[in-house]
Amino acid sequence: MSKDAGLFDEWVREVAPSDWLRRWYGHRPERFEEFARRYRVELKTSPAKPSVDALLAHARKGSLTLLTATRDLERSGATVLGDHLRRRLR
Questions:
Q1: Domain ranges within the chain, ordered by starting residue
Q2: What percent of the chain has pLDDT over 70?
Q3: Interhelix angle for 32-43 vs 48-61, to 10°?
Q4: How far is 76 from 68, CA to CA, in rounded Å?
């Protein structure tokens, strides 16, 4: 599914892991815990923080669905992002 398909409201690139972090991780299971720790730091700082705050505001008004293309959901950035958002909503 491409972002141009018009099947979702927003493509929030700013909340994705940095290119450097994503390449460093390389979906190597033994690096996931460190990847998650570093990604959570990225989510708390610019450029991600304003977009994270906007996603939280949207989630407070209704539902929020995150989409990902990963095959390993358990050890993915989408899982880290979802957990981060849920914690902030509490």
A1: 9-89
A2: 91
A3: 80
A4: 9
